[in-house]
């Protein structure tokens, strides 16, 4: 149980469960202007449009199912310490069974007070609506990090990466900051692996598995367990 694997996951792992990515060709940012749905200004200007966008995204998440990559990470957790740091706002890691998941960009399954970011509720199948308010009567907004907002979980994520014995990057180009800076916290000599069919990460010494997450992650987990006889 001494080995600590930190897994950084991005949109690629959820795409194989049928969830649209944001930045790839045909992704969500080609279908809607981020300035209309993913900024504090958008919320102030047209909260109804923002609510509708995230309600639709949440319905898609509820209809999706964890895939073989999510399940392989759970299997690994059964035998060693695994910390998942995800850029995704879905809950597929949790639904697969991962017990240590840190959401860098928040969770689409939650809402928080527009006044107090510490007041958070689980939405489940409930939609965001104008009638949903916090304890002080203010509207509840999606509990996601919008463009132009700070990423509160970054410090915790950096600490996890700095304590990793192995770093695995799955389905993320790590082109989006500040998340992209996390690889800078890996200690010298710590093995780094990347699973992505279109991997463009330039990490010196990293092992690259150019396969979809549903193939590459089970392959990596199988090799890791064999190497450490776990």
From TrEMBL:
Name the UniProt key words of this record, in alphabetical order: Cytoplasm, NAD, Transferase
Q: Extract one GO cellular component term from the record.
A: cytoplasm
Domain Deacetylase sirtuin-type: from-to ranges: 1-227
Reactions this protein catalyses: N(6)-acetyl-L-lysyl-[protein] + NAD(+) + H2O = 2''-O-acetyl-ADP-D-ribose + nicotinamide + L-lysyl-[protein]; N(6)-succinyl-L-lysyl-[protein] + NAD(+) + H2O = 2''-O-succinyl-ADP-D-ribose + nicotinamide + L-lysyl-[protein]
Q: What class of enzyme is it?
A: transferase
Q: What is its EC number?
A: 2.3.1.286
The catalytic site is made up of 105
Q: Where does substrate bind?
A: 54, 57
Kindly list the GO molecular function terms attached to this UniProt entry: histone deacetylase activity, NAD-dependent; NAD+ binding; protein-malonyllysine demalonylase activity; protein-succinyllysine desuccinylase activity
Q: Where does NAD(+) bind?
A: 10-29, 87-90, 171-173, 213
Show the InterPro entries listed in the entry. Answer: DHS-like_NAD/FAD-binding_dom, NAD-dep_sirtuin_deacylases, Sirtuin, Sirtuin_cat_small_dom_sf, Sirtuin_class_III, Ssirtuin_cat_dom
| UniProt-listed SUPFAM superfamilies | DHS-like NAD/FAD-binding domain
The subcellular location is:
Cytoplasm
Pfam families per record? SIR2
Role this protein plays: NAD-dependent lysine deacetylase and desuccinylase that specifically removes acetyl and succinyl groups on target proteins. Modulates the activities of several proteins which are inactive in their acylated form.
What family is reported?
Belongs to the sirtuin family. Class III subfamily.
Q: What is known of its domains?
A: 2 residues (Tyr-54 and Arg-57) present in a large hydrophobic pocket are probably involved in substrate specificity. They are important for desuccinylation activity, but dispensable for deacetylation activity.
Q: What is this protein called?
A: NAD-dependent protein deacylase
Query: Which organism was this protein described from?
Result: Halovibrio salipaludis
């Amino acid at each position: 149980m001494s080995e600590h694997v930190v897994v950084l996951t991005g949109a690629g792992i959820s795409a194989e469960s049928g969830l649209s990515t944001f930045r790839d060709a045909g992704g969500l940012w080609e279908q809607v202007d981020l300035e209309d749905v993913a900024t504090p200004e958008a919320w102030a200007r047209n909260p109804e449009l923002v609510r509708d966008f995230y309600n639709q995204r949440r319905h898609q998440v509820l209809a999706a199912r964890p895939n073989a990559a999510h399940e392989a990470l759970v299997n690994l957790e059964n035998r060693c310490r695994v910390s998942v740091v995800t850029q995704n706002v879905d809950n597929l890691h949790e639904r697969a069974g991962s017990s240590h998941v840190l959401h860098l960009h928040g969770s689409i399954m939650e809402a928080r007070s527009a006044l107090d970011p510490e007041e958070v509720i689980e939405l489940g199948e409930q939609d965001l609506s104008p009638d949903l308010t916090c304890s002080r009567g203010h509207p509840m907004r999606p509990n996601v990090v919008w463009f132009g907002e700070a990423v509160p979980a970054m410090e915790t994520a950096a600490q996890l990466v700095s304590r990793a014995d192995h770093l695995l990057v799955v389905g993320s180009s790590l082109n989006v900051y500040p998340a992209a800076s996390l690889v800078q916290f890996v200690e010298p000599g710590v093995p780094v692996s990347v699973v992505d069919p279109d991997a463009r990460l330039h990490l010196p010494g990293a092992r690259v598995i150019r396969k979809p997450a549903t193939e590459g992650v089970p392959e990596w987990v199988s090799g890791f367990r064999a190497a450490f006889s776990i």
